[in-house]
Records
---
Amino acid sequence: MSSNNKPVLLYGGILLIGIFLPLALPAFQTQISVMWMMVTFALTWDILGGRMGYNSFGNIVFFGVGMYASASMQHELYFDIGQFEVISDQFNLQLTPEKYLFGLGLGMIVGAVICVALAWVLGSGILSLRGHYFAICTLGLGVAVGELAGTIDYIGAGSGMAAPVFPLAMGSAGLFYSYFFFILVVVTFFSLKWLYSTRFGLAINAIRDDEDKAEAMGLHTTRYKTLAWCVSAFFLSFAGAGFGHLNGFIDPLDVAFPGATFGVWMVLMAILGGKGTLWGPVVGALAFHITQEFFWSTLLGWQRVALGLMIVIVVVFFPLGIMGWAREKWPERFGHILEEESS
Amino acid sequence: MMIGALFALAAFGMALVWGVMNVINIAQGEFVVLGGYVAVLMAQSGIHPFFAIFVAPVVLYGVGWFFYQTIIKRVVDKDLFTSLLATFGISILVQQLMNQIFGADIRRAPHGFGTWGFFDNLVTVEQVKLLTALAALALGGVMVLFLKKSRLGQAIRATAQNARAARIMGIDTDKVYAATYSLNAAICGAAGAMVAMIWVVEPYIGLVYTIRAFMIAIIAGLGNLSGVVLAGLGLGVAENFAGFIMGAEFQIAFVFSLLVVILVGRSILLGRKREYLK
């Protein structure tokens, strides 16, 4: 990153990919949307996991809550929810583009507000746990919320609910959402880049390195920890809202709170790429998603077995991840000066 | 309520691994379920599943030894999260392999025991529940004796106290770790065989057992057997009661919510002790 041209070229290249990839591969637009969503997952997980040293298995909660909140908002706005319950299986909500976009935007904002509030409330309790206890507690949280969502009649209980149908007048849903998720990735990336360069970034790094010392130095650790979780929840709720509408149908266990798939993947992707770096989660998510699509198509039925194997291999043999490995291999490209050379 | 004794067994194994190796084994529940499938397979091939209580530990000892040698060995001295995630990987791996091999259906091992009636059948006790509870307690007792008296048990306890000092005293800690992890798997296997008889097994239920074992271990403290048994029975009662009051669909949600509540409550209690930091 020493010369000024490199980042511009890199960002420009990614921008071009973001714009033209869905156009070039129209058959894979949904997969491309999901790919950008994976990048968002890994980036948001890394706020806590990599930067703050709090390894959460429960971030999926905010994904699901954001999804349910936005979809419920659409139904609330344009449809009597009482009627919806009766015919939820056959019914598809058809909307004009203006109504759809307005509902989507409003739903996302409401979802984000709810998620941030939820993160604040949960965070003030759970974030006082440390190490193992935090990890297991969030693991329990993710499953508990999913199971609870399956019992609430308002959002369709165990049988799930349908998101509004994407209006035909607006063209392809895959194209719309691949751009939506790409913009989300860009916004998330630069927000985090900015956040990590502020006092906030330094504070959460200090918490990762030694929480007691950070506290003794006068940092209000609980406030920073909760804030970090809120940031994470904010971006995840947008991802959830987008995915709920892209998928069209929201099931409590498989789509909204899929702890065993998305919930684990976000951890794995961030570690695969290299946690605690800005580019690591991006690289990890892209690498993971592309390999995973490969597994899906060739190892039908065995892909989850491969996933378990992959977690073990990554954790045991590549704990530093791709970026960590690259940093050790070419330290000078990351602005580090080798000690052997200086002495 | 008898099921609580089985939770206690799994929790005892988890506390053992946690205390000795400083590894939290997320794959605990998967070992339980795997033990259950051993009983199911034996029942299918015509052997009475009660013998699975003796066969499953042997099988699971091998499984545990295999995972120790391939995976756990490499992460045991790394930081806590690495080992946690590694066992989580094992958990998914085993779970999905079971799903592929045995299918996603709910399975059970038919046992053919009747029920005993007391007080003119006012109180009925299923024989199998009583027998398994007794077997679980006996197994727990044997484990405690083993840890206290045998040479290997003493080595395990020495390693738990101070691995480095134990190594200086000539204890092969690598072997001790292998034995501990495999023993834990064996205990889980026995518990699983009992679960298959009095309840059901399915590939995806493992995580619930892990969480239960974890909860019991943190409530009771590490290495406190009577506490583990009491907490296990208590959890069994609480769960059945909650399932009865709120409905069966809340049972899994109850287990996981209880975990969150216990952990947060525990940190608030502990937080009082470190108030000088604020």
Note: Chain B has eleven helices and two strands.
---
Amino acid sequence: MAIEQLYTDQPITRKPITPTESLPAVRRPWLLPVLVAGLLATVLVSVGVGAVFISPAEVLTMAGHCVGLAAAPDEMKTAILTTIRLPRVCLGLLIGSGLAVAGAAMQGLFRNPLADPGLIGISSGASLAAVCMIVLELTLFQQLGGLLGYYALSLVAFLGACGTTLLVYRLARVAGQSVVTTMLLAGIAINALAGALTGLLTYMATDDQLRTITFWSLGSLGGASWTTVLALLPFTGVVLVGLPRLAKSLNLLSLGESQAAMLGVNLTGLKRQVIVLSTLAVGTSVAVAGIIGFVGLVIPHLIRLVAGADHRRVLIGSALGGAIVLTGADALARTIVAPAELPIGILTALLGTPVFLWMLINERTRS
Amino acid sequence: MLTVENLTFRTNQRTLLTQLSFEARAGELLAIVGPNGAGKSTLLKLCAGEQKPTAGTIALHATPLSAYSSKQLALCRGMLHQQNTLAFPVRVHELVLMGRYPHYGTHPSPADYSIAEAALETVGMQAFSNRIVSTLSGGEQQRVQLARVLAQVWAVPNGLLLLDEPTTGLDLLHQHQLLDVARQMAQQGFAVLAVLHDLNMAAQYADQILMLRAGQLEAYGTPNDVLTASLVEHVFGLPVKRLENPCHHCPLIVPVPTFSSAFTQ
């Protein structure tokens, strides 16, 4: 007998089912609207701050002028906004949302709220490849640099991220099934190896190279231009659409792997999709902006505290929250030591660590 | 409904199940009993389609399990696992609704909510609907997980329900309530397979008993036929007396242990 025939919509039940009048209320339904409003406000403020201050009212006038509603604004300020500030803010939005949503999905995949895309070697692989390129100055790299110019480093870093992730995934695929705990352990081992090799290369590097390495590994949105934004947009776009679609499966995975399989989740496919999409998000953002830590770890955790465990809300909330935090942190990074600029990786770690420790302690006292 | 023929399962060069054949019929509760490590949970996993047999066939409604997609199976087969740990602070009503996930796309219908609620009521946990599951006691968590499994197969007329040591951690009332629910599911047309440790509960609730030892089928039949003193002693290595349960007219197994002293002076 076919399944379709077996399954009827007519429930046969021991107790009569009466349709419930009131469906279970979504917890804290204000979260997503608040995040959207916060995002708009952050964008409005952060395009304004810098050496030349542009007030939100002026920004709105410029936006209004674009659609033919307002009078022509100050031309110099418009130029600053469109060529310098706006691409940088857009880059912050893309990277922040990508990192946070990838972090949330990784935590779901590893069934561990403390997991992070860095765990399976994405960031360390990217930095190893980048440091290789900076230090070794191989002919291959130089030819690549000649072809792609500024983007060569980004491309190499992205390939490094993909390479290590693939290696970790392969190592964990014993007997045709990838076991998540093995993947975690393999990730730790590969991370250590990549760290050691990076350290070795750093040791060999000249003073000039060291400066480049340091700047790169601290992370910065300083390289923002419309070209980088457009280069990143399709990747982050795919991730922002793809990962929230896996929310239901990730919810089921939180019950356990066997339990999820019983409810029809294709575990292999789910793991593959989460890993590919996360590598895409984290690899491209490391490639463009260097290593920016803690966004992928802290933001999903904070969203979960407010929104609960449902991945549909956690993933979307994390994307919004990550965009807000990284854009805001970047605005801070380029103003607090003006006219110089603080690497954003320092800032996210400085702000992220206390929040993370607070979460850890809070969790321990609660349980 | 579920036909198992010459089932053998081998992993890591160890044979866990050898040449099992039996049938779980619709309307029957089949209890699987046996000592630790006999292969009971492995058998259940194979019946659930979670693992593939090394040899032999398992057919559900005369179609081999391997011919079903995992989505199709999720619509008609529910399984309660022995261990259920949650990675995130999920609430009770969210957890039970997850049982309905295979049945809807993006948004649950009012019927899905009603079924989740009815399933929660069946296990007597509706008052805890808004609690975070991990803050409940072990037995309460087990009941909520059962509600999730019931919600999954609630509206299916000829489903398969697999319970792996479902009574673990439950108090006396809820152990019996759980097996009562299992029997009622069977009466609705389900085939129910339950791994049980308590032989007397198996005797009281099961229609058929499958007795395993070291991956081999030792006995298969009605409680009256299977639960004989000699067979139980042979399989479990413990001398027992078989009495007649005067209330339920089924066998009553009373252990008569002859252990040596564990503490020598």
Note: The beta strands of chain A are 173-174, 177-178.
